[in-house]
């Protein structure tokens, strides 16, 4: 049996600087997997490569049984891989509703799209109340909700989230983490990149710790949460 | 000395042409942050495209009948050249330092001018463009030639169609998304290469319409006509706020009217006698540009840079 996403010996470089130096991991359908690590470890680079925005130097990416190497970014969404990028990256001059519509750009089932927009509004009622507001004027937390909702609009097989808690208040962060947990329990497969190791590991089935372009430690979320070196390096304990 | 309504009408007609051409600069810039300095020549070849269609029609065909086909011919030639420029000149340079596409654009301009000069029959001289015969119209105290009615109808029609396209269609929405954040647009499943081609094509089509208007107004087309018209239209695009389609048209009209008024009235200001007349009109156009850039750098309708993705 093969995993939904299989990454083998992936290497990615910016010019001469190698940011990802040969990493391998996989994500099983229905699972939540997290990549944690310090600033500049290569987490964002990994996600951007998986969604086709960056071309790998070497390595193999298999998604849903098909190779992703050489597939352009706009075709990768079509295969069921959605990416909520670091920094949210909403379309600032478009409204909430328009951003969500764009998340469903490749879908043709108008009724299904409307139903899914309603689902996002149920998940985040504030978005429904503000649906005609330009997304650039939303608060950070609201923007993050919208970014997540937009990524869900493609009905992905795998949802990749890059630092959804970045810049949020503790309450907002809790809300976002709860939502991820909820999505996961509804069967959405998730690949989560986080600085907040505690929160990420406590909801993930599998975790991988990245350091300067390499995976240095892997294990179940629970085991990493209790690993001494992880606790020291990422959970601020000594 | 002419009267005010006449000057306003002249300015409006000229400005509508600038505005139509300016759309091409502004759309391409809005999406790929590239100034397509060959756009003036894309306008110019449209004029020759329309003329060629007219010459191919049986002698004696009335201009009113020929005009729709000429328009189609002009648009087609402009669009084909515009798409080819994107595909073969600009796309290979995407991601290169900004100077590279700029130099390419200048090279392309010269190449297109020289191609018409060398290979278009009698292209070394101005070629006569067909004219509407018959009396002119009197509108609100201004005399408007028959041929000028064309741009007065075509410019607003084009703007309404473009506004609808951008705001209401799927491709238009994709275009807005690509302009605001191209990488994220790809993540939505938008083929941004296609959107870039579309922006070049729409801009070229508008330039083709402007070229027909230019031919009808001036009675000729010639290989150099894209230079000053392109420069003015670029000025209009910056004036209106580059990246904003309505700004481009507004900038065109403001520029056209300012030019007409300066030409007619500057010489009446005591001490300014020697700066009046047509010889100085280009200077006033650029003075206006500099003033706007000093007082409102983002242009009349431009967003502040911080709002741009
Ligand atoms: N566009 C770029 N050009 C050159 N180097 C880059 C670029 N983007 C990232 N890098 C470098 O690649 C390395 C990995 O960056 P990446 O953004 O993947 O880290 P990250 O793990 O996501 O970090 P953070 O947690 O801070 O978001 C860093 O050293 C970074 O400086
Ligand atoms: Mg990152």
TrEMBL record, chain A:
Name of protein: ABC transporter ATP-binding protein
GO molecular function list: ATP binding; ATP hydrolysis activity; branched-chain amino acid transmembrane transporter activity
Pfam hit, one: ABC_tran
Q: Where is the ABC transporter domain?
A: 5-237
Q: Which residues form a coiled coil?
A: none
Query: A Gene Ontology biological process annotation?
Result: L-amino acid transport
Q: Which InterPro entries match?
A: AAA+_ATPase, ABC_branched_ATPase_LivF/BraG, ABC_transporter-like_ATP-bd, ABC_transporter-like_CS, BCAA_Transport_ATP-bd_LivF, P-loop_NTPase
The UniProt transmembrane annotation reads none
Domain of life, source organism: Bacteria
What start and end residues bound the annotated signal peptide? none
Q: Which family does it belong to?
A: Belongs to the ABC transporter superfamily.
What keywords were assigned to this record?
A: Amino-acid transport, ATP-binding, Nucleotide-binding, Transport
TrEMBL record, chain B:
Cellular component GO terms, alphabetically?
plasma membrane
- The protein in question is named Branched-chain amino acid ABC transporter permease
Cellular localisation = Cell membrane
Q: How does it sit in the membrane?
A: Multi-pass membrane protein
> Which GO molecular-function terms appear in the entry?
L-isoleucine transmembrane transporter activity; L-leucine transmembrane transporter activity; L-phenylalanine transmembrane transporter activity; L-valine transmembrane transporter activity
Q: Which residues cross the membrane?
A: 12-35, 42-59, 65-85, 97-117, 149-167, 195-215
Q: Which UniProt keywords apply?
A: Amino-acid transport, Cell inner membrane, Cell membrane, Membrane, Transmembrane, Transmembrane helix, Transport
Taken from the record, one Pfam family name reads BPD_transp_2
Checking InterPro entries in the record gives: ABC_transp_permease (IPR001851), BCAA_transport_permease (IPR052157)
Q: Which GO terms describe its biological process?
A: D-alanine transmembrane transport; L-alanine transport; L-isoleucine import across plasma membrane
Family matches, as PANTHER family: BRANCHED-CHAIN AMINO ACID TRANSPORT SYSTEM PERMEASE PROTEIN LIVH, HIGH-AFFINITY BRANCHED-CHAIN AMINO ACID TRANSPORT SYSTEM PERMEASE PROTEIN LIVH
The text of the family note is: Belongs to the binding-protein-dependent transport system permease family. LivHM subfamily.
């Amino acid at each position: 049996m093969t995993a939904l996403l299989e990454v083998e010996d992936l290497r990615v470089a910016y010019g001469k600087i190698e940011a990802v130096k040969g990493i391998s991991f996989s994500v099983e359908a229905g699972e939540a997997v997290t990549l944690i690590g310090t600033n500049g470890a290569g987490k964002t680079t990994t996600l951007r490569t998986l969604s086709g925005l960056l071309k790998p130097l070497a390595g193999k990416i298999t998604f849903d049984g098909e190779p992703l190497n050489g597939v352009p970014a706009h075709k990768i969404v079509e295969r069921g891989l959605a990416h909520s990028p670091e920094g949210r990256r909403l379309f600032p001059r478009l409204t909430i509703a328009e951003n969500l519509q764009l998340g469903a750009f490749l879908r043709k089932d108008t009724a299904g799209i409307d139903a899914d927009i309603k689902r996002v509004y149920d998940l985040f009622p504030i978005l429904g109340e503000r649906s005609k507001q330009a997304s650039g004027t939303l608060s950070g937390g609201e923007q993050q909700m919208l970014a997540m909702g937009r990524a869900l609009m493609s009905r992905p097989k795998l949802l990749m989230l890059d630092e959804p808690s970045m810049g949020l208040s503790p309450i907002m962060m809790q809300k976002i983490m709860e939502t991820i947990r909820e999505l996961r329990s509804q069967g959405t497969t998730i690949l989560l990149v986080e600085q907040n190791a505690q929160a990420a590991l406590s909801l993930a089935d599998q975790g991988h710790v990245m350091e300067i372009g390499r995976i240095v430690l892997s294990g179940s979320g629970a085991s990493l949460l209790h690993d001494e070196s992880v606790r020291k390096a990422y959970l601020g304990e000594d | 000395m002419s009267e005010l309504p006449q000057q306003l009408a002249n300015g409006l007609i000229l400005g509508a042409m600038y505005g139509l051409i300016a759309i091409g600069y502004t759309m391409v810039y809005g999406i790929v942050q590239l100034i397509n300095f060959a756009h003036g020549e894309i306008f110019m070849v449209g004029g020759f495209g329309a003329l060629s269609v007219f010459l191919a029609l049986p002698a004696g065909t009335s201009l009113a009948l020929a005009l729709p086909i000429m328009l189609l011919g002009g648009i087609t030639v402009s669009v084909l050249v515009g798409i080819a420029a994107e595909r073969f000149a600009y796309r290979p340079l995407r991601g290169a330092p900004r100077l590279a596409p700029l130099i390419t654009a200048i090279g392309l301009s010269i190449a297109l001018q020289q191609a018409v000069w060398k290979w278009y029959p009698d292209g070394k001289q101005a070629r006569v463009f067909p004219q509407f015969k018959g009396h002119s119209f009197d509108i609100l105290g201004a005399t408007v030639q028959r041929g000028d009615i064309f741009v007065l109808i075509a410019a607003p029609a084009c703007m309404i169609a473009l506004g609808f396209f951008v705001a209401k269609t799927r491709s238009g929405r994709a275009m807005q998304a690509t302009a605001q954040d191209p990488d994220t647009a790809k993540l939505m499943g938008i083929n941004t290469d296609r959107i870039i081609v579309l922006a070049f094509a729409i801009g070229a089509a508008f330039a083709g319409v402007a070229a027909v208007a230019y031919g009808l107004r001036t009675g000729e087309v010639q290989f150099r006509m894209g230079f000053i018209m392109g420069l003015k239209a670029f000025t209009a695009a910056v004036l209106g706020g580059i990246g904003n389609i309505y700004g481009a048209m507004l900038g065109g009209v403001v520029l056209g009217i300012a030019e007409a008024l300066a030409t007619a009235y500057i010489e009446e200001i005591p001490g300014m006698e020697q700066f009046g007349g047509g010889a100085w009109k280009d200077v006033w156009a650029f003075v206006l540009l500099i003033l706007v850039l000093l007082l409102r750098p983002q242009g009349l309708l431009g967003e502040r840079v911080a709002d741009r993705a």
